[in-house]
Each structure stands twice: as structure tokens, then as C-alpha cells.
Write a structure and sequence with these properties.
heterodimer, A: mainly alpha, B: alpha+beta, four-stranded antiparallel sheet, 21 helices, 33 strands
């Protein structure tokens, strides 16, 4: 005979077990739904209309799907509206990244506006997305990013300008480099003409050597820089001397670029050979200085 | 005798002894506590004053800095040192009639030493009876000086007036009092001292006997001058007292605004001040005002007074208005003035003369040494012809004030503020530009910046410079700072400078606008822009309502919301006629207040704001839990969201149709109905209102609406609204509609088919719910489907206030140059290739 107390215990246990089974089934169903959801399969309505939800996860998914969609102009308008309506940081950043992937000129206005957003992260993303449009008309706007108050923005903009081949930006890049925007070095090396080498060399001794070598590496790789200028660069580096310069020159001797002439290679080899390195002097890893 | 009686007797004996105490030094007496004037006759007028006997001299006595400290007497007219004495000096040298006196440290003691002005020979050396030497005066052959001491011991506390024979240095007489006395002032064979800050005591110079004493009012006296039968005395004000044969009578007083000057200097130097030989505030912070006692009340002898603050020199007229100012090359050590000239001796050893009325430099002399303190009372104030400098044009007061205000010496903050105040009072518009330069000067003290901001906020001239200053952006490459909005904006508002509006809006969206300045900016835009300001403010509020960049200070967002919310009408009639919920700004506010990602303080502020602005019949928002509300047994939702509310109305649309159709028959022009209500946690409606307010409509709808059951939820109560868009002016095709099969708005949609196109109104088929945002073109077929689905969308977002307008405003990019694109010009847009 089962006592009343035992029957209550058994009943309670049974109820708990049943609840667990139901919850586990629900959870599994939710996980399955999430895992097997495919882009665009969620509903028949246009992707853009899915941006009207307040569910952040849903929003982020919709943004990813939008950026992969073919209708970039229409979708970018929807994302622009979303941005203008004001979003939490994570959504704003995600939406700007989505616009960067869409590369639609429809988004130019909102991207230009977001280049003046109060958050530096948002500005970095806006400049990046704007640069992704690959439109020369946007270069003046992007150059303005070198004047930004946030170091992260200036640094990213310098990189973008180098990628955009924005030769007009070289004077500003030189000034930015002088003020400590180290990423400007590589950009100057990509964009500067032969006359800019002297201005660039003015920072030698003021800025860290690895930073300067970033720019010199770019200069040495370029076909439009005269060989005489490149030889002057090598001579100047030999005067600086040290293990870091030696490693830099040796790396280029061992793996010469396609624009490295035999004369240039020979000059680098000779200069590297002349540089005496004290064993106690710390040398920068050769790996970092690979061309 | 009991012990108690013995102690009482001893105490009484001690008291009597103290009261009758003598110093034991010859005839010197101790004046009993109470008043120096006890037993002394009334102060009366003396005879004729002695004529000054050193008018032909031109001497400067000064002390050089340590370690090579020495006393130097320099003859300005001859341009040479007359004599110098090496030694450690403790007091500023003082030029008297035929001697120069100072306190020197000799053999571990402080001694008053006197040197003959002609020969430099030492005439007297007398050990000071008390620690502090206050100053000396020469009356005939008597050298009279005051020393004082502070101590907790009554026997050591007090002052001593000592008279020495100026020729031999022998002690003539000495008087002691147990309280403070000032330095003596000599006149007509008498030495006058101030006692206890209120009594004036006259002593016979030859004998030291009291000739008169009177308490001249209850006000303290810090300085005293004797002019014939009148006394001039006071603190920050000057009083004139007439001496006669009877009691002294008060004549009048002179009040100057000197208490507003840095350091609050007295009108004349304090007679209680001990002046050190080292650098001190005595010369560095000095006010000089020459007083005229010829009238009934004291007056400024030359219509002006002068003030030195370290290296800044100011000249004021009698009303306190600044006449001129100068920046000196070094700190002032002494300042003197006459009717025509102002003379300054600086610590670098320069003697400078300026014209009293214009401030033009008249002459200068370079002393052979740097100095720490000086006395030039024996120098005629006018510059000697040999010392005259080329007289230049009077310097511009504004330029001089600018130089003073921009002086980076940290000690000079008070006088920089004085210069800023004077600049702010300038009638020249360009002074505003100067004030901004002071504000933006690198490392400008915050206190100075605050002062500049305050004076700019009330200045009524030069606002065009404020507008101009708004133009610049922060520039990392050039080091240009962002515009100083805290200094600029209040002045723009004060002057109602509407030209500044576009630039203020630029600054609103400038990432370098500092967080504390944003609220100021928003309020200025709202005030200056009026209705035009709503668009940028709405954009700002929408853009940042959920952004972390403003999370630390949401005051700007709340200020924008306040500016966007309509004013509460003052009267009930105005309230009834005022356009309310249909305003897009209000819709934006409501949408943001319901957006779950809105920053919590913004949301709280908006809820409060909307509750305040709500119409009379509209229920107030209650954010907190209502304790009287019964606890729902099993709440399913955390909060009641918009989607759920929409679904409930969708499900019960048929029940409401009858009421709405009846209202449409009464009011064919009706475009929309808006419900406002509060849903309690139990899911029941507690209050309900409908707009427009029609009695029949409300009577019909109220029981149906109150019967609605919303899902129970866990937290708070929910203030909500719901809008039905209607159109009744088209003929209804009943055949196309099966009653009850479609919601009533579908009928309204059918009515709209074939109707003439609306002008610039929002299309009727578009959901009027402010929570809805349209991202598609309404004319496209696919969009109609979207529009139908819109009311059922889960969580609508706040509308972007300027999405379309931004597109319109986007500048048309300039046509690319007509050149044949080369293959590597990948960046040229495709359409231009």
C-alpha cells in the first residue's frame, strides 16, 4: 500500500520529469529552427521590411542577409533608413559593415553623415564603407578623416587613402605622419612621388624605424619611382644602420620584388653587408620586414 | 584663613597689580586696558604744518635681493649711486627728511638704523623694543617709529612708540600700550597714531606727551593722513574729519569701487602693515589714490586712481571706469602718482613714468641693481628731462587689455579677469573676438574661461564674431580646436543671432562637440530656430536615442525631446483646439519612448514628458507598479508590446466597426481615429480616450473597448495608443465587400480605389500608426502587399525623420572631367565612364 506521502512524492517527481521533457523538446526545436534557417526563407516579405523589428538578433541576421542580397541599391536604402532612425551601437556598427559590403552608391549620403557620428567606431566603419564605394568623388571626404580627433579614425583613414591611390592626400599624410599617425607611412610609400621621398625621410630618426621602413618598402617596390631615388633611399638607410635595417635589406635581397632591378638588388646586398651589427643589439624579426 | 579665602585674596591682589603695572623704564607708562584715550583731552586742531623740506631731492632707496643684500640710495637726477650699505635688512627702507631708515639684523638683533642722506654715515642704531617695525616719521629732529608685538602673554603684547634724536640717535622718549598702534604720521610738531582701529591719538613730538585723543566713529581706521585741521582716514572708503577746538566733526566720505579690484586693496596702504625688505605684496599689489581735502568731503585730487597687480598696471577715473592699462616688464615694487604722472619702480630696477590721463610712457631710468623693495618718496614724480623717452601715441586700450588678458603668468589670474571684464565693457565689436581668443588660449585657466563665458553671455556687441567663431572644425593636422561653444552659444541666444542657426546645427552633428555643450546647443537651436529647428532636433534625437555615445549625459536628448514636444496649452479651450497627437514630432517621441533599445534615462524622461503633455482626458503615464492593482496570477509577457496590442485590435475590429461607421456618417471628413488607453497588468483597460473627442463616438466605443482583454503581463502598466486610418469620401461598393468577412479598414481601402490622387497627404493606405516606418515606395505593387502586412508587423521602429529629405539635400556631385578614362582609373564611377 502506498502511503499518501509517497504518492505525493511520486506525483511531484513525475510532474517535474514531464516538464523537463517538454522544455527539452522546445529547446531542441528552437535550436533546430535557428540552425536550419536559410537566408530569405524566414518569410515571404522583402528582406528590407524585416529591418522594422526591435529584435536585435533578428536585425543582425537580416542585415547579413541584406548585404548578401543582389538588390544592393534598394537594400542599402533600407539600411540607410535604419541607421537614420538611430540604433544601439551593435546594430549601427553591423549596419555600417553591411553597407560596406553592399558597395551601393545609394548609401553615400548616410555614410558621409556617419563620418561625423559621435562614436569613433562608427566613424571608422563609415569611412571604410565609403572607401569601399571606390569613387574618386569621395576622396576629399575621406581625407577629412585625417583631421579627426580620434586616433583610430585617423589611422584607418590613412590606410584607406593608401588603398584608394589618393595621391592628393600625400601632403596631409606627411603631416599626419609627423604628428604620429604611423599607418600613414605605408600610404605615403604607395602614393608619394619621387619628390616626396625627401619629405618622408625627414621623419627618419624621429619616428620608430619599423614605421619608416613600412614606407620605404613601398617606395622600393614601385615601378614609377626612379632607380636613382631608390638608391638614395638605400644609401640613407645604410647611414641609419643597425640590425633592423640590415634585416630589412637582407629580406629584399633574398626575395626581391618584381620591380627590383639587379642594380638595386646589388646595392641592397652591398649595403646590408656593410652594416655591422653588434650582437647585443636587438634586431627586429626578419619576418616583420618581409616585403 | 581658609584656602578659598586665600585664593580670592590673592586673585584680587593680582588684578590690582596688573591694573597698576608699570614698565619700569623711566617715565614710560602703560596705558590701561579700555581705551588709549582714557584721561587724554579731546583731539583738537594743531598749528600750521611744516613745509616739505626735500622737494629738491631725487633719491630712490632700495634693497637688493639676497644673498648680496644691500641698502642702496640712488640719485636719479645725477644718475649715480649716492651710497650703499651692505647688510641683512629686515624692512623696506624709508626715506625721511634727512635720513633713510631701515631695520637691519645685527648681532642677532633687529635694530633700527638711520643713515645720513647726504653722506651715508650712520646716525642711529637702536634695538627694536618689539618684533614688528611698522614705519617711521621724522618730526623736526625727532625720529619717531612704532613697533608692535603679538603674543598670548598680556605683558608681551602691545605696541611701542619710540622717539630717537635724528642727529645723535639717542632715545628721546618711549610710550607703550597693551594693544595695536599704527605707524606714526607726522604733522605740525605732532605724531599721530591710530589705536585699536578706531582712536586717533596725537603725541607731542618733542616729549611724547599726549596732546589729544578721540574716537572718530565706530568704523575701523586702517590709514590716516593729516591735512591742516582736517584728518583723512578710512579703509576702502575715505572719511574727512574736521578738527577744531571742540569735538571732531565728520565732514563726508569718498567711496570708490576699489573693493572689486583683485586683492581688495585699501584706498591707502594700511598703517598697521609691516613692510618687509624682501619681495612682498606691498609693492606688487598697490592702489594709489591722491586725496584732496579742500572740500567738505574727500575727493580724488586728480580725478583718478591707479592700481598695480604684479606686472599689470591699471588707471581708473573717479567713476571706476578704466582709462588705460599697461603690461610692465617686471613686477611692481612701488607705485606713486601725482596729478600729471604715474611712477612705477619695478623689481627689475626700472623707474617708469606714465602720463596720468593717457598712459603714454614719458620716461624711464634703469637702476644699477635688481631690487626687492624700494621707497622713492624723495623723487619728484615728474620725469627728469634726462630720463624722458620718446613720447609715442597713446596705446590702444583694447590692445593693452588683450595683452593683459592673454598674459600666461599664473599669479595674474585676478587681473586677467579684470582685463576681461574691461574688454567686455568695450564698445568695439572686435573686443568679442579678443575675448574668444582669451577663452581659446592654450592652457587657459578654467576660472578665466568661466569668466569669459559669463561676460560673453551678456555682451551685446560683436555677435558677428561669435557667428564667425562657429565656423571652424576641429583639425588634428593644424591643431585647430573645436569652437568654444560654452563661450559662444549663450551670447548668440542673448543677441537672438539667427544667422548662427546653420552653423549651430552643424555643431550639433559635430563629433567634437563636447558632451556638456550639447544641451546648450540643443536649447539654442530650439530658441533661435523656432519651427525650423524641429527637423534637425528630430534627426539628432532619432540618431542618438539608443547610442552609447550619449549614455553618460542624456540631457541633450531630453532637451531635444522637450523642444519637439508641443507646449501644454494654458487654457482648456486652447487645449481642445490645439493640434496634438497627429504632429510628427510627437509621434517620434512616442515611438522612441517605446523603443526597447532607447537609453533608459531617455525613455524615463520621455515617458514623463509625454505624460505632462498629454491632453486632459488622456490618462497619465504611470511607469511604476500600481500597488493597488491585483497581482496577475500567471503573467505570460514581461511587458505588453505593440504587436500584441495590434493583434488584439485586429481580432476585435468587427466589434468596433459599427461605431466607426456611424462616426463616418456624421463626419465624412474624418481621416483617422486615435485611441489612447492604459492597460493594467491584468490585461484590462483602466482608462480610455478617443481623438477626435466626440461624445457619441466615445459613448459607443467605450464599452466595447473596455471589454477588450489583453494578455496579462508582468511589469508596470502600459500607456498605449492605436490609430485607425479612414477614408469616407469615396462611394462604397458594397457588392465587393462581404460584411464581416474583411476588417473595416479593408472596406476603407476599397473606397479609396479610383479616388482622385491625394495632394501631398500621406496615402490613406499607408498605416498611420506612428510606430510604423515605411521603407518601400507605396506605388509599387509589391509595396501594397507590404502595406497590408504592415499593421501585423511585429515591432515597428521609430521613423527616420529626415530619410527622404537627406536624399533631396544630398549635393549633386560635380560632373567628372571629360577625359578619356584610362584602364587603371578604376575609381571613376561607372556612370561617368
Amino acid at each position: 500500500m502506498i502511503s499518501a506521502r509517497r504518492s505525493r512524492i511520486l506525483l511531484s517527481f513525475g510532474t517535474t520529469l514531464a516538464s523537463c521533457v517538454v522544455l527539452a523538446a522546445d529547446a531542441a526545436h528552437a535550436v533546430d529552427a535557428e540552425l536550419f534557417r536559410l537566408p530569405g526563407r524566414e518569410s515571404a516579405q522583402p528582406l528590407a521590411s524585416r529591418l522594422s523589428t526591435h529584435d536585435q538578433t533578428e536585425l543582425l541576421i537580416a542585415l547579413d542577409e541584406l548585404s548578401a542580397s543582389a538588390e544592393s541599391d534598394r537594400n542599402s536604402r533600407a539600411v540607410a533608413d535604419l541607421l537614420r532612425a538611430g540604433q544601439p551601437d551593435v546594430v549601427t556598427d553591423h549596419a555600417l559593415d553591411a553597407l560596406a559590403r553592399m558597395k551601393s552608391r545609394e548609401a553615400r549620403a548616410v555614410l558621409t553623415a556617419f563620418c561625423r557620428h559621435r562614436r569613433a567606431d562608427a566613424r571608422v566603419r563609415a569611412y571604410t564603407a565609403l572607401a569601399n564605394l571606390r569613387d574618386s568623388r569621395d576622396i576629399p571626404v575621406i581625407i577629412e578623416g585625417l583631421r579627426d580627433s580620434a586616433a583610430t579614425v585617423r589611422s584607418q583613414v590613412a590606410v584607406l587613402l593608401g588603398q584608394l591611390q589618393a595621391k592628393d592626400a600625400v601632403p596631409d599624410l606627411l603631416r599626419a605622419l609627423e604628428l604620429g599617425v604611423h599607418t600613414a607611412a605605408a600610404a605615403i610609400g604607395k602614393l608619394g612621388d619621387a619628390a616626396s621621398v625627401q619629405s618622408y625621410g625627414g621623419q627618419l630618426g624621429r619616428l620608430p624605424l619599423p614605421v619608416m621602413l613600412e614606407g620605404y618598402g613601398q617606395y622600393l617596390e614601385r615601378p614609377d619611382i626612379p632607380e636613382s631615388v631608390k638608391l638614395e633611399i638605400i644609401a640613407g638607410l645604410e647611414q641609419v644602420s643597425g640590425a633592423t635595417v640590415k634585416a630589412f635589406l637582407n629580406a629584399r635581397v633574398q626575395t626581391p620584388g618584381k620591380n627590383t632591378t639587379p642594380k638595386l638588388q646589388q646595392a641592397m646586398s652591398i649595403s646590408a653587408g656593410r652594416i655591422r651589427v653588434d650582437d647585443s643589439e636587438p634586431s627586429t624579426a626578419t619576418q616583420e620586414l618581409q616585403p | 584663613m581658609s584656602g578659598t579665602l586665600a585664593r580670592v585674596t590673592l586673585g584680587l591682589y593680582a588684578l590690582v597689580c596688573a591694573a597698576c603695572a608699570h614698565t619700569g623704564q623711566g617715565e614710560s607708562t602703560v596705558i590701561l586696558a579700555g581705551s588709549v584715550c582714557s584721561g587724554v583731552p579731546q583731539l583738537t586742531a594743531a598749528g600750521k604744518s611744516e613745509a616739505p623740506e626735500r622737494a629738491d631731492q631725487a633719491l630712490v632707496a632700495y634693497v637688493t635681493p639676497r644673498p648680496a643684500s644691500k641698502l642702496v640710495v640712488y640719485d636719479v637726477r645725477a644718475g649715480r649711486v649716492r651710497f650703499q650699505v651692505e647688510g641683512v635688512l629686515r624692512s623696506r627702507p624709508q626715506l625721511l627728511r634727512d635720513v633713510v631708515v631701515a631695520v637691519a639684523e645685527r648681532d642677532g638683533q633687529n635694530k633700527l638704523v638711520a643713515f645720513d642722506l647726504q653722506t651715508g654715515s650712520e646716525r642711529a642704531s637702536y634695538t627694536l623694543p618689539r618684533a614688528s617695525f611698522l614705519g617711521a616719521a621724522q618730526v623736526g629732529d625727532e625720529l619717531i617709529f612704532t613697533t608692535s608685538s603679538l603674543s598670548f602673554r598680556p605683558s608681551e603684547r602691545g605696541s611701542t612708540v619710540t622717539a630717537l634724536n635724528a642727529a645723535s640717535g639717542a632715545l628721546s622718549w618711549e610710550r607703550n600700550v597693551p594693544y595695536a598702534l599704527s605707524r606714526p604720521t607726522a604733522a605740525a610738531g605732532r605724531a599721530y597714531v591710530i589705536s585699536d582701529h578706531a582712536d586717533v591719538w596725537a603725541l607731542e613730538a618733542d616729549s611724547g606727551s599726549s596732546v589729544g585723543c578721540s574716537r572718530l566713529g565706530s568704523e575701523p581706521i586702517e590709514w590716516l593722513q593729516v591735512r591742516g585741521d582736517k584728518l583723512l582716514l578710512g579703509t576702502h572708503t575715505a572719511r574727512a574729519v574736521q578738527l577744531g577746538q571742540g569735538a571732531p566733526t565728520e565732514l563726508g566720505r569718498l567711496q570708490l569701487p576699489v573693493a572689486e579690484l583683485p586683492g581688495q586693496p585699501l584706498l591707502q596702504p594700511s598703517a598697521y602693515q609691516s613692510i618687509a625688505a624682501e619681495r612682498s605684496a606691498y609693492g606688487r599689489v598697490a592702489l594709489v589714490s591722491t586725496l584732496d581735502a579742500s572740500g567738505a568731503a574727500p575727493a580724488l585730487a586728480h580725478g583718478g586712481y591707479y592700481f598695480a597687480f604684479y606686472r599689470h598696471l591699471f588707471a581708473f577715473d573717479g567713476s571706476g571706469e578704466l582709462r588705460w592699462a599697461h603690461k610692465l616688464g617686471a613686477d611692481s615694487a612701488e607705485l606713486r602718482a601725482t596729478a600729471e604722472h604715474v611712477r612705477v619702480i619695478t623689481e627689475s630696477g626700472q623707474v617708469l613714468w606714465f602720463a596720468a590721463d593717457s598712459g603714454v610712457a614719458l620716461g624711464q631710468v634703469k637702476l644699477p641693481d635688481q631690487l626687492t623693495s624700494a621707497d622713492s618718496s624723495a623723487v619728484a614724480t615728474a620725469p627728469d628731462p634726462a630720463t624722458r623717452a620718446d613720447v609715442a601715441a597713446a596705446p590702444s586700450l583694447q590692445r593693452e587689455l588683450r595683452a593683459l588678458a592673454l598674459d600666461t603668468d599664473a599669479r595674474l589670474l585676478p587681473s586677467r579677469k579684470l582685463a576681461v571684464s574691461a574688454l567686455a565693457a568695450s564698445k568695439e565689436p572686435s573686443a568679442t573676438r579678443d575675448l574668444l581668443d582669451v577663452y581659446t588660449q592654450p592652457h587657459a585657466p578654467r576660472e578665466l574661461q568661466g569668466h569669459v563665458a559669463r561676460v560673453l553671455a551678456v555682451r551685446e556687441r560683436g555677435s558677428e564674431h561669435l557667428v564667425e567663431a562657429l565656423a571652424g572644425d576641429y583639425n588634428f593636422l593644424t591643431g585647430t580646436p573645436a569652437p568654444p561653444l560654452a563661450a559662444i552659444v549663450p551670447g548668440l541666444v542673448k543677441n537672438n543671432e539667427q544667422r548662427a542657426l546653420p552653423r549651430l546645427i552643424d555643431r550639433l552633428f559635430d563629433p567634437d562637440t563636447r558632451l556638456p555643450e550639447l544641451q546648450l546647443l540643443v536649447e539654442a537651436i530650439a530658441k533661435l530656430g523656432g519651427p525650423q529647428a524641429k527637423k534637425p532636433l528630430a534627426e539628432f534625437l532619432a540618431l542618438y536615442h539608443a547610442d552609447s555615445s550619449l549614455a553618460d549625459d542624456v540631457s541633450s536628448l531630453l532637451a531635444a525631446a522637450k523642444a519637439l514636444a508641443p507646449e501644454v496649452p494654458a487654457s482648456a479651450e486652447a487645449q481642445a483646439t490645439a493640434p496634438r497627437r497627429s504632429e510628427p514630432e510627437l509621434q517620434l517621441l512616442e515611438a522612441i519612448s517605446k523603443d526597447p533599445s532607447t537609453l533608459a534615462p531617455v525613455k524615463d524622461g520621455l515617458v514623463s514628458l509625454l505624460a505632462t503633455r498629454a491632453a486632459a482626458p488622456q490618462p497619465e503615464v504611470v511607469a511604476s507598479e500600481d500597488e493597488s492593482e491585483p497581482e496577475p496570477e500567471a503573467p505570460v509577457l514581461e511587458r505588453l508590446n505593440d504587436a500584441t496590442i495590434s493583434s488584439v485590435f485586429s481580432a476585435h475590429a468587427g466589434e468596433l466597426r459599427e461605431c466607426i461607421a456611424a462616426e463616418l456618417s456624421r463626419n465624412a471628413g474624418l481621416r483617422a481615429l486615435r485611441f489612447h488607453f492604459i492597460v493594467e497588468r491584468s490585461g484590462k483597460l483602466s482608462r480610455f480616450a478617443v481623438w477626435p473627442k466626440r461624445a457619441e463616438l466615445l459613448e459607443c466605443l467605450q464599452p466595447k473597448i473596455e471589454a477588450l482583454q489583453f494578455p496579462a503581463f508582468a511589469r508596470g502598466r502600459r500607456l498605449a495608443s492605436y490609430t485607425f486610418a479612414l477614408r469616407a469620401d469615396a462611394s462604397r461598393d458594397e457588392a465587393e465587400v462581404k460584411e464581416g468577412a474583411k476588417p473595416f479598414w479593408f472596406i476603407a481601402q476599397l473606397r479609396g480605389v479610383g479616388a482622385p490622387s491625394a495632394d501631398d497627404r500621406v496615402p490613406w493606405w499607408q498605416n498611420q500608426n506612428p510606430l510604423y516606418v515605411s521603407v518601400e515606395e507605396p506605388t509599387k505593387p509589391t509595396d501594397q502587399a507590404d502595406a497590408k502586412q504592415a499593421p501585423e508587423e511585429s515591432q515597428p521602429k521609430p521613423a527616420a525623420p529626415a530619410a527622404d529629405s537627406d536624399k533631396r539635400q544630398e549635393p549633386v556631385p560635380a560632373a567628372p572631367p571629360e577625359e578619356k578614362p584610362t584602364s587603371d582609373q578604376w575609381w571613376v564611377p561607372a556612370e561617368s565612364k
